[in-house]
Amino acid sequence: MPPKEQALETERDAKAEELESTFSYDGYQVVRKELFAHLRDPAIVIRKDSITFNTACISGLEDVVYVHVMFNSDLKRIVVRGCDENDKDALRWCIAKPDKRKSRKMSCKPFSELVYNEMGWDSDCRYKILGYRINFEGETLYVFDLLVPEIFHESQKRKKGESAPQSEETKPVNTRKGFYPDDIAGTFGVPVEEHLKESEVKQIDGYVSMGILTGKVPNASAD
């Protein structure tokens, strides 16, 4: 190896040893996944009258057609786990065909209203939350943190015969472009230790099933 390249390699090795000997996670934040492109990541979309799990989410729980949807009002999280069709509060979260499963809109106005009220959300918006797949006590779960939503304006339907506003100050709302709350958009993420704690589901005791929460179960037979 030429002397110049040897000197550079020696310098890099010395720098690596220095970094290794002094490294600490103190002061580092884990950058939020939400700040990157995530079109193909598992997610739930919550509207004021329905919820929808995307195809990536459904594919992550292999062969699962029915699920339990659970809500934790303290942690502000939704957890989803697979279950059998005849289990209490079982919900069909996808359309199952012989060769594939695909997403379906789950009508659930009572549940959505409770979530919107709990979170203080705007009824003129829909909320997309990324799902994190974890293993807990031998089960595969999806965890959705409602405190980190991507927000989309819903298109406003005009009544028949009603004309659009003519004010020059009125701009059309982009219903396809999402945004995050200021406390999310203005930060990289959370400290490493806090991130580890947030990633844990220590118990299911604090979660309430969707059926118990609303007293109703959405129609599981409608597509």
Automatic annotation (TrEMBL):
- The protein here is known as Integrase
| Ranges for region Disordered | 157-180
Q: Which organism is it from?
A: Clostridium fessum
